[in-house]
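Protein entry
_____________
===
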Amino acid sequence: MAGLLGAGRGGYKTCWLLFGTSNQLRAGLTLLGITVWLKRQGKRAWFTIAPLVFVLASLIGLIFTTVALLSKPYRTLSKAYADAPAQGAAI
């Protein structure tokens, strides 16, 4: 929390970006666990495989985007967030 408060302008957006990435990872791992469990129980798991593939594919893109954004110097990231419109902005 202290790091968030001391991060300056746009610091909360960095934390929100990391939270979103970790949340998607948790969703993907949960779907993977459910799919494996269904297969081991001898039940059909086709209805969990399609969402699993979608979530993991979007997660891979999200991870690369997050790493690219966070690898830039902090000033560039803060400026990009500050200059972006409030809703629906793509950096």
